[in-house]
């Protein structure tokens, strides 16, 4: 009996501790995951090409804001661009569509060309059509491979974590248009 009590005391204090931790907060509860898929159980690798069109009559990336010193900055520091680009299976823009990266890139580096990327990668074709992942990260022109975190997702990618690695495939210095190869690893 005494032994049983000794066993029960730590159990009881664990309950008390749990209650004192959760109760005063009052705004959150732990709930049961509505379905098993909430536990990350697979790593999905997605490969595509990201077409960034800044030139011509129908650009898919447009600068919407600049700072007072942006025009005299060699790196375009302070430029904010809004983007609705195209993602395709192959490097050719006419190859099969995978999705659309919708978001913004902001020039945030005063010394070298560098961007803050804030994007929803919206998948529009195939088994992930309608699902999205959110990409947020540092895209520095000084790096050959730019690595950016995947900080969440929706649909098939609900509660996703992961990372994207981006490498310039073609950059046209005259027009400013670029094709960037992406390898995205999503744990979901
Ligand atoms: C910067 O350049 C743009 C495009 O040439 C121009 O429209 C804008 O007025 C300039 N801004 C400043 C603050 O000089
Ligand atoms: C680069 O862009 C310029 C200006 O739009 C265009 O004339 C040229 O054909 C492009 N080069 C390539 C290799 O696509």
Automatic annotation (TrEMBL):
Subcellular location per the Swiss-Prot or TrEMBL entry: Secreted, Extracellular space, Apoplast
Tagged with keyword Secreted: yes
Keyword Secreted tagged: yes
GO BP annotation list: phenylpropanoid biosynthetic process
Function text: Dirigent proteins impart stereoselectivity on the phenoxy radical-coupling reaction, yielding optically active lignans from two molecules of coniferyl alcohol in the biosynthesis of lignans, flavonolignans, and alkaloids and thus plays a central role in plant secondary metabolism.
UniProt protein name: Dirigent protein
Gene Ontology annotations for the cellular component aspect, listed alphabetically: apoplast
Highest taxon in the source lineage: Eukaryota
Signal peptide from the UniProt entry: 1-18
The entry's keywords: Apoplast, Secreted, Signal
Any Pfam family matching the protein: Dirigent
Chief localisation class: secreted
Organism lineage string: Eukaryota, Viridiplantae, Streptophyta, Embryophyta, Tracheophyta
Family: Belongs to the plant dirigent protein family.
SUBUNIT field: Homodimer.
